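Subject: design request, 257 residues
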């Protein structure tokens, strides 16, 4: 089977800082792959090289076997790579359904006036996506009224509107309450698995990582120091020493659990 994502030897420097060095990994359809590591480890850099926001100095990114290295984000997005958006990228004055409708229009590259008829064209599809993320009841509410956790769910629906093969989620639950976090990751994992979407995510919340990742990459100072299933990563002596040590007793306790 062709790999969904095949990242080979990515490297990136910012002046004297090596943000990524020889980063290689693969991702299969329906798989949840987490990248963890201390602040400044190079997680976002790796993300941005996959999504096209940053051009790598070395290495290649293959998407379904196609070399997309250095392609601009818009092009990578068209090839089926979704990102969860930031709150600022939703239209607060528009309703939830209209926001998802806009994403659908954008995906289908319609040029109609989005505030009038085109919104209606995609209404049904928007509602389908909203029910998939458990937000159908909020379809008519303005975005501005939603709780932060609900905005994140709508953002997931917006990312799904582009029918992605791969979802990139850089700290998707940042700023969320623990319960909301867990719910969002559970939802993401269920959608990924049922639709065969590969998910690459980075996440501070170790509970979310260990509960939802199929595999974990541990990045320290731009290099992958360990990889494997959650159980393998927990047990890895190098991880305990370098990364978990830096993050204190909380994670070490979890490693013993
Ligand atoms: P993480 O997401 O794991 O916290 P980053 O990928 O954001 O780490 O950063 C990795 C390293 O690269 C850090 O030392 C950071 O300061 C540096 N860095 C990231 N982006 C830039 C940039 N645009 N310019 C200069 N240095 C950067
Ligand atoms: Mg980051």
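Subject: RE: design request

Done. Sequence follows.
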């Amino acid at each position: 089977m062709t790999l969904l994502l095949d990242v080979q030897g990515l490297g990136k420097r910012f002046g004297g800082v090596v943000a990524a060095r020889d980063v290689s990994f693969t991702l299969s359809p329906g798989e949840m792959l987490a990248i963890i590591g201390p602040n400044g480890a190079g997680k976002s850099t790796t993300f941005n090289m996959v999504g096209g926001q940053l051009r790598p100095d070395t290495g290649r990114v293959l998407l379904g076997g196609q070399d997309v290295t250095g392609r601009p984000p818009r092009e990578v997005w068209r090839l089926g790579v979704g990102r969860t958006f930031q709150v600022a990228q939703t239209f607060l004055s528009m309703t939830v359904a209209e926001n998802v409708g806009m994403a659908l229009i954008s995906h289908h590259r319609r040029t109609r006036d989005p505030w009038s008829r085109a919104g209606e064209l995609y209404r049904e599809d928007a509602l389908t996506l909203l029910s998939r993320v458990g937000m159908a009841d909020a379809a008519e509410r303005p975005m501005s009224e939603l709780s932060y956790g609900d905005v994140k769910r709508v953002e997931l629906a917006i990312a799904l509107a582009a029918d992605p093969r791969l979802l990139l989620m850089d700290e998707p639950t940042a700023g969320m309450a623990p319960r909301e976090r867990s719910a969002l990751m559970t939802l993401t994992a269920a959608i990924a698995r049922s639709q065969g979407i590969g998910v690459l995510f980075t996440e501070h919340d170790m509970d979310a990582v260990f509960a939802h990742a199929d595999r974990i990459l541990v990045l320290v100072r731009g290099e992958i120091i360990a990889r494997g299933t959650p159980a393998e990563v927990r047990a890895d002596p190098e991880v305990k020493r370098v990364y978990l040590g830096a993050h204190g007793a909380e994670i070490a306790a979890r490693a013993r659990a």
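The CA atoms of residues 59 and 251 lie 32 Å apart.
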